[in-house]
TrEMBL record, chain A:
Residues of the CCAAT-binding factor domain: 537-692
Protein name per Swiss-Prot or TrEMBL: Protein involved in the nuclear export of pre-ribosome
Alphabetized UniProt keyword annotations: Coiled coil, Nucleus
Subcellular location: Nucleus, Nucleolus
PANTHER family, per database record: NUCLEOLAR COMPLEX PROTEIN 3, NUCLEOLAR COMPLEX PROTEIN 3 HOMOLOG
Region (Disordered): 1-21, 380-414
Main localisation: nucleus
Annotated organism of origin: Handroanthus impetiginosus
InterPro entries per the UniProt record, alphabetical: ARM-type_fold, CCAAT-binding_factor, Noc3_N, Nucleolar_cplx-assoc_3
Basic and acidic residues bias locations: 380-390
Domain Nucleolar complex-associated protein 3 N-terminal: start-end pairs: 178-268
One GO term of the biological process aspect: DNA replication initiation
TrEMBL record, chain B:
Annotated protein name in UniProt: 60S ribosome subunit biogenesis protein NIP7 homolog
Subunit structure as annotated in this protein's UniProt entry: Interacts with pre-ribosome complex.
Family: Belongs to the NIP7 family.
Domain (PUA): residue spans on this chain: 104-179
One BP term from GO: ribosome assembly
Amino acid sequence: MGKKKQKLVLPPELPPEVPDEDIEVSDEDLQFFNENLEYAGFVSNLDTHSITKHVTRVADAKEGDLESLYEKRLRKRLENKEKEPTAVEVDPVDALPVKTLDGQLYYRRVAKEPKEAEPVSGDPALVKLTKAEKRAKLKKLRKEAKKQAKEEVQQTPQAEVLDEVKKDLTAEEATEMKKYKLAELGTALLADPESNIKNIKEMLEISKDGNSAIVILGLKSLLAVFKDIIPGYRIRLPTEKEQEMKVSKAVKKMRFYESTLLSAYKAYVQKLVSLQHQAVYKRVAVRCLCTLLAAVPHFNFRDSLLAAVVKNITSQDDVVRKLCGTAVKSLFMDEGKHGGEATVEAVKMIAELVKAHNCQLHPDSVEVFLSLSFDEDLGKSRSSDMDNRTKNKNSKKRKGGDEPNDMPNNQGKKIRKEMISKTREEVSADFKAASLAQDPQEQRRLQSQTLSAVFQTYFRILKHAVLPISETSSVPGASRGHPLLASCLNGIGKFSHLIDLDFMADLMHCLRKLAGRDSKLGDSSENYSCLTVSERLRCCIVAFKVMRNNLDALNVDLQEFFVQLYNLILEFRPGRDQGEVLAEALKIMLCDDRQHDMQRAAAFIKRLSTFSLCFGSAESMAALVTVKHLLLKNVNCRNLLDNDAGGGSVAGAIAKYQPHAVDPNRSGALASVLWELNVLLKHYHPAVSSIASGISTMNMNNSQVYHSHVSPQQAYMELSQENMSFAPPTDIKTANNKRQKGMDKLPVKVGSDLNLKVQFDENEVRKKLAEHFFLLRDIQENERLRSELDRTTLSLNLYERYKKRKKRKTR
Amino acid sequence: MRPLDENETTLVFNKLHKFVGNNLKNIVLESQSHEGPDANPGRYCFRLQKKRVYYVSESLVKRATNIKREKLVSLGTQIGKFTKSGKFFLTIQSLNLLAANAKHKVWLKPTSEMSFLYGNSVLKGGVGRITENIQVNDGVVVFSMADVPLGFGDAAKSTVDCRKMDPNGIVIHRHADIGEYLRMEDEL
């Protein structure tokens, strides 16, 4: 039946078959041909030349060879026929056939099965189905499967009854059977886990199948089952002593249930861990592991789950890595499920991993730390607890002091009271052990462990980054670049309030070294790896955050980091480096700091306004907001706004502005004039030009109590978002008018902005197209009219001739 | 009046280096004076006169040669003097030079300014702001919160240690302060 189709798919195979076509055509084929005549249209288009070439080639071959050649062909043909029924099922898009050297075709049959596989588990990681839904889905699936089976049964008689086909079919049936089995077992388990617990072992058996599709299905359905039936507590297997004891029926049943569940779970986890090394199952296994870790972190065998997931967090495969990352993050986020112990373990494992790989990992592995959360009063709560305790003691003492006065001779009562208090303590201890609510002290211990592991990792990365390349490269496998540095700096910035003061000096030292590592510094820095501008800016930001969060008592001036920032502004390239980081640095270092040296502030004002000339609009907006801040705070710096160079009395020791000075204090910026603002007034972006005019009109002597509420970061974000859809104020209409005047300057003026150009182009194109089509229509109209005219003249002529003839005849 | 010999130069430069660090080359090489009638700006140099070290522009030095050594009282800016035992110490007149190039700075709260100007050391409670990375015995220039240089001294504690100190601990040992212009008018 699918013969013609087959032909279409395999044109090169056909020509040699032509000679024995007559013999082979069956009735069915004829019937099909008659029914679908239009399909056969291609026959007329056949390349007869090439066919004859093939035929003659065959004819030229030696006689003996010829026979075998035909034999082969016959066999091939038969084989092709066998394949037809199965081949039809395969979507040709999904599975192109593979042709071996001897001309045999292999279809990939796997392609069909994963499609079915999905509804079974319904991608459990994403959608958590309720039991009812699951059951419904399973039923539906079964129905579908049955239908398909029927279809197959119908198809079979059509095909030639051959052994191999049978084999194929039986295999397929077997897989179908297994699928049903899985579905049935799974539903039974979900419906009543306690009585059907044995099913789980069968499911495990099925998932050991050789067929990869079945294995995947098995793993997924097992995952769904485990996720549902795993209890909310950790199972402890009874000791021998306990087993010897006589127990009630219910307890026995429960124990049996738990032990089977546990052993099955163990086998399952082990299977997953072993399967993740095989390429075929890798993703499935990792997804299962991650889902289990996220769903049941309190249960047994968490260690092996964690180990596997953490190991995969640096995988080359993006999907796997992301899965693991989200799993670990979810572990960190809801600690209520496992009481924080898993967090400590995971963090320690990641720390080990970083150590083992010598900091050459994917940044995702450390980024997960960012979702950790610590109590803000990690240090404070202890003292308050102590206070409480002492208070309690005091009150107790007071009470104790009172008691003997009341009843000095009542010894019996006293003893009884002691007894009562003792039992109470015991009960409360038991309650604590049983209840989910954690002991705050325990929690604090876990958190401090986590914190120390996190900072250990961070400091290791920093230290590694500080080391010169010559040292690190002696370690095999170490490459240049510090992939972890950025996320590490983010992390330190986030947890800076938790850093111990004792580490502070070393930390600052490291950061200073990193921030000061100039990529251009020539020979001395050659054995250092270069950091990008953003990374160095980050270093500065982190240093400021650390300082600010820890030292409210002592105001430390981070001179060196200011010098770094001053020079980094020079190296900043809007396209290459991240503008957000620059905006953040400007905010934290220049806007949030309370006071600055006058010289330094002036130097920054001058440099920022100079560079807002050549930044993009968003960056220059951030820079200008900062300039405004600085000018508002430093009244003396408003000298820069006056139109006389030299700076007058405040100019200081340096009489002339030195734009290339490295140290902002030595630049003598107060001697210069902010002429940049005037140029910025003509900025193409209205917001930038408005803020520039706002700055330039700032008054020298009135100390405005004006506080701009916009931070550079906000300004940057606003403009960079706006930039996506930003069309300069010149409207299309005005643009049209201007173009008519022959305005070629406009695109030059806003040359940087592509948007406008595009709009111009669009307009022009539209107009030209319109013209073109008008012209075309005119031509058509013209032609039509002409043809009409021709026709009428022709008919007129004909009529004339006819008349003449008639006249002649009548004569 | 004579240039400093080698020993004296090392002494003076060591002392200055303690306060200004690498900015010393600004003081010695790069700063230019526009004094005098010469068209091209001259440099500054150090001259010794009666045990006192002066920071003088070259054109002034040329003109000062016209005056006898005994009669020459002062020229340029005095920055320090050699003691009888041959040690060099900076005097308060060098403050402007140091303040412009200072590496380590401390800003005093307004309440503790007067105490410092009377010749007392700087206590931790009086520190309004401090540059990071000061080590013990580094030279530190003292400013008021309004960035007016007040004097200079030695760090008694590093910045890191300052955090843990109690507010009455000494942060900076005073060398010189601008109060000396009144208190020790005769000796200067």
